[in-house]
Amino acid sequence: MNKAIKNFAKLLGFHLVSIVPVKVFKNDEKYLYDWIDKGFAADLEYMKKDPGRRSDPSKSLPEAKSVICLAMNYYQDREGKVESGKVARYAWGKDYHIVIEKKLKKIRQFIIENSDGSLTKKDFKLYNDAGPFLERAYAVKAGFGFIGKNTMLITKDYGSWVFLAEIITTLELKYDDPVDQKMSCGTCTKCMDSCPTKALNGAYSVDANKCISYQTIEKKGAVSVDTKGNVFGCDICQEVCPHNCRAKKTDVEEFLNHIAGPNLDADKTCSMSEDEFLAKYSGSPIKRAGLKKLKNTFENMV
Ligand code: B12
Q: Rounded to the nearest 5°, which phi and psi values hold at 51?
């Protein structure tokens, strides 16, 4: 079953797959509580709600035994130098939540059909970003890579340009024994030095209040920092990372077929009606910020 699941996930387009037993991440939990206590979660209320669930999967699925960890490469090159209206790479094509959720459901169905008949959907939790789960901590356990000073999970083959997802199940599986890839940031501090708002206020620590990604996507009011031409998300701490010399162009069609693309035009965006916006960005992550916020971010751009 271990091999069959991994083969099936690869066929669906996942680039990394590893199956590990459930674990409570006590150390990472400390970092999470500390991060919340310092106010670094800003207005991300979902991060403050019962944080203990994030380090202990059995709080969401009591009989949880195994975690199938998955990663998907989404990297694409930005051609030419654009100074304004930049969109973070993760949002150029179709929303990864939609793309990945479909595939997670297919894997769940595959497992149900290929097991002894006792499993139902209730024996699974499918997580991808929105789940109450420390995804990066599990990705390290799965052997995908290490956590960099920019807090990103950095892999050997794709750098940090991967989305993470997990399937938690009550099914006991044969587990992988990931090899430690012995990678680290060493003495490099390029990400911290390059973050224009100093959101990376120490190694392994992001203050969401200052992070351009939070400011341009999640923050309810207007941006209060110079977003350096970024209108939706920010990739600076990944672009400067030397480990990302290993980035490879994604082969996922849904990401290659652009909806928003690498940048938005200020005039076109600011003259759009709400209906035009919803029609153009249906299925795109851009919808999360909403038209009002995008217009506002353009207006506040230096
Ligand atoms: C909240 C959140 C945000 C917030 C806060 C970011 C943050 N660093 O916490 C905001 C809105 C700012 C954000 C931005 C982005 N995000 Co985000 N985000 C999340 C979310 C939902 C939770 C992260 C979390 O738990 N934060 C709490 C802190 C405490 O945890 P952490 O940063 O992961 O830190 C871990 C380690 O650093 C470690 N740690 C902490 N201190 C120390 C100290 C030492 C010494 C050591 C060794 C370790 C260590 O402990 C923590 C737990 O393992 C996850 C999805 C998920 N469910 O996990 C996606 C996720 C982390 N985001 C993701 C992405 C893609 C982004 C952006 C790149 C998007 C963009 N281009 O704009 C940026 C990157 C900014 C950055 N450098 O983090 C991906 C990252 C994939 C990867 N390769 O790592 C995730 C995993 C979503 C996904 N499913 O793919 N995000």
A: -60, -25
In this predicted model, what pLDDT tens digit does every residue of 17-33 receive, in sequence order? 999 999 999 999 999 99
What's the rounded mean pLDDT across residues 178-204?
A: 94
Q: Where are the domains of the chain?
A: 2-75+95-169, 190-299
The preferred substitution site among 25, 72, 104, 136 for testing ligand 1, maximizing ligand atoms within 8 Å of CB, is 136
The residues annotated with a catalytic role in the active site are: 129
Most distant CA pair in the chain, distance: 61
Helix, strand, coil percentages in the chain from 3-state DSSP, rounded to 5: 40, 15, 50
Report whether residue 240 contacts ligand 1, using a CB cutoff of 6 Å.
no
Distance, in Å, from the CA atom of 36 to the CA atom of 209, rounded to the nearest integer, reads 12
| pLDDT of res. 181 | 79
Give the chain's mean pLDDT: 96
C-beta of 40 in contact with ligand 1 (< 6 A): no
Strands 230-232 and 200-202: unpaired
Output the residue whose Cα is nearest ligand 1's atom 68.
Answer: 235
Cα–Cα distance measured from residue 35 to residue 200, given in angstroms and rounded to the nearest whole number: 12
Per-residue pLDDT at 302 exceeds 90: no
76 lines ligand 1 (CB under 6 A): no
Of ligand 1's listed atoms, the one at least distance from the Cα of 90 is: 71
- Indicate the pTM of the whole model: 0.97
* Ligand 1 in reach of 32 Cβ (< 6 A): yes
User: Helices 2-11 and 96-113 sit at what angle, rounded to 10 degrees?
Assistant: 150
State percent of the chain over pLDDT 70: 100
- Check: CB of residue 11 under 8 Å from CB of residue 4: no
Please state the atom number of ligand 1 nearest to the C-alpha of residue 91.
71
Q: Verify whether ligand 1 is closer than 6 Å to residue 207 (CB atom).
A: no
